[in-house]
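Trying the structure run again after the queue cleared.
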Amino acid sequence: MELKDKYNKLIDYAQKSQVEGLSVTEKNGILYISGTATSPVKERIWSIYDEIDPDMRSGDLVLDIKEEESDENADNVYEVKTGDNLSKIAKNYPGMTWQKIYEANKDILKDPNVIYPGQKLKIPL
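Done. Tokens:
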């Protein structure tokens, strides 16, 4: 089994979660995955890895996901990216729903179906 196939679920999640600077390379029988992500995305990536290799004994993956540097309150702010919608954003935060995000941002969102890349949304954690 090729390593990219073995870790496909993890790689797909990282891509869908728009991990910044995502790099997936294989060298000498080891898969190297690196990039920068929000804390919830990073935690989910590690959870997926734990599902694939519960004892973490395979020794065939180097996972280097750094946490995004944050401004004051950055844990509570999400910058909308192309292709985002409130449901997709909510999936990055355990227990979050699109409705909660919409309610927290009613001052800037008139319609929950209309968001734009670059908008900064409060995430009610």
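The chain has a mean pLDDT of 90. Worth checking whether this holds up in the mutant runs.
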